[in-house]
Specification:
Leucine-rich Repeat Variant; 25 helices; mainly alpha; binds 2-acetamido-2-deoxy-beta-D-glucopyranose; elongated
């Protein structure tokens, strides 16, 4: 899939290479006995190219129908025929094209050269060529990545080609092996450099590729973090373009997810301030705010599950206030995500539940309950019911935590 998509965008590079090789190698592939037949065919070239018929016609002297009949009868053709079917069957059409377009004089010359080889030499030669053809059949993902990376690294390439190279990498790095190869092939530095491109589209796609490559991949996460890409991505998070900020958040989430090192760097790059900026900014796109809330929840959950000291952001008073405030934005999906965030935050020992009390979480949750009962249209009723169940769960948890807090204070 990846190959096909990437290939279809640049048919020129590879097809020509394969066809040219086929044209040069073709005469060597033929058994000596049939070389003469090929010469005869070559001599006829120019008069009727389609008279070449299938490759098998000249390779075995049998016609297509006869061969098909034999194969269906289970007997198979000659040994040569099996070899051809196994090794080169899918190249038939390219081979035909190559014959039709090659120089008849040269073909004749090379075909007579083949006749001089002994049977053993010929066999060996054919094996070598067979292996070569296998390799030529389809460029590897690494080949495709090298081409895209060379394009990215070429400062004189057009913006359009640059974008296309990025799109190709985006598809290729979905495969973990390819993502792992990215740095080896010299791809990470050019990609990170593109985060500073003057063109927004280019910046966005680069962030996308970096995010996709580091998704659930500790090795690539560390490589990208090591090159210092996080600082640039945090800056992108402040972009007034929702698309750009959203893609930066995507890349940051992928880079620091389950990574202690990544989360420390996020803190030292002041990533919390960027998240906060998105959360409190009333002009922020809802989708962007949802991503920011989701990232905060993910960080809180990591802290809960790993026992690692969490990000100071998560216990920051203003951050908690902006999370509570978001429950007043009427969007069920956002409210659900915010409730999940609060639920995780309440469980963190580093979060002082008194701050939630300060921002009147209890009244906010009660108001939300009324809203959820009154407002939803028929088709949102079920969803509103689910969000309301979550709201009650959060309320109960909050009341428990408050009680615990008071008891602890009392005991001191
Ligand atoms: C070329 O050969 C094919 C197959 O033998 C035949 O059908 C076709 O009429 C020929 N064309 C010309 C131009 O001779
Ligand atoms: C860089 O791109 C230009 C324009 O496409 C091309 O002419 C040149 O050969 C490329 N340079 C390298 C080193 O690939
Ligand atoms: C990118 O180009 C620089 C010089 O322009 C070169 O040193 C480097 O090896 C190139 N990297 C790749 C991956 O082609
Ligand atoms: C943003 O919205 C909140 C709640 O709707 C409101 O309290 C706050 O004043 C607004 N902030 C700005 C800067 O408009």
């Amino acid at each position: 899939m990846a190959k096909a998509r990437a290939l279809s965008k640049r048919p020129g590079h590879h097809l020509i290479a394969v066809v040219l090789s086929a044209a040069v190698l073709l005469p060597l592939l033929m058994p000596a006995a049939t070389a003469a037949a090929a010469v005869a065919v070559a001599e006829g070239d120019g008069e009727n190219k389609s008279a070449l018929g299938g490759t098998r016609q000249w390779a075995t002297g049998k016609d297509e129908e006869q061969l098909v009949a034999e194969r269906e009868a289970g007997g198979g053709g000659s040994v040569e025929e099996d070899e051809f079917a196994g090794g080169f069957g899918s190249l038939d059409s390219m081979l035909q094209w190559a014959i039709g377009n090659s120089d008849p004089e040269k073909l004749k010359e090379e075909a007579s050269g083949v006749q001089k080889l002994s049977a053993d030499e010929l066999q060996k030669r054919r094996q070598e060529i067979k292996e070569l053809m296998e390799k030529l059949k389809m460029p590897s993902d690494a080949d495709l990545m090298k081409i895209a990376i060379a394009d990215l690294n070429n400062s004189s390439i057009s913006l359009e080609d640059r974008q296309r190279a990025l799109q190709e990498l985006l598809v290729l790095v979905e495969a973990i092996d390819n993502a792992n190869d990215l740095d080896k092939l010299g791809g990470l530095l050019p990609l990170i450099q593109e985060l500073s491109n003057a063109n927004e589209e280019i910046r966005i796609t680069s962030a996308w590729v970096l995010g996709t490559a580091s998704q659930n991949n500790a090795l690539v996460q560390d490589q990208i973090l090591g090159y210092g890409a996080l600082a640039r991505l945090v800056k992108m998070g402040y972009s007034t373009s929702t698309e750009e900020a959203a893609k930066a958040l995507y890349a940051i989430s992928a880079l620091i997810r389950n990574s202690v090192n990544g989360q420390e760097m996020f803190h030292s790059e002041n990533g919390g301030a960027m998240l906060q900026h998105i959360l409190v900014n009333n002009d922020s796109d809802l989708r962007l705010q949802k991503k920011a809330v989701f990232l905060a929840t993910d960080l809180a959950d990591f802290q809960l599950n790993s026992g690692n000291p969490g990000l100071p952001l998560l216990s920051d008073r203003l951050f908690l206030k902006s999370v509570v405030d978001m429950l007043s934005r009427f969007d069920l999906d956002l409210q659900e995500k915010v409730l999940l965030a609060i639920k995780s935050l309440l469980k963190l020992s580093s979060v002082d539940v008194a701050n939630f009390e300060l921002y009147d979480l209890e009244s906010v949750l009660h108001r939300l309950g009324v809203q959820l009962e009154d407002l939803p249209s028929e088709d949102q009723k079920e969803y509103a019911g689910e969000v309301d169940a979550l709201r009650r769960e959060v309320l109960t948890l909050f009341q428990q935590k408050l009680k615990q807090g008071r008891q602890q204070q009392h005991n001191i």
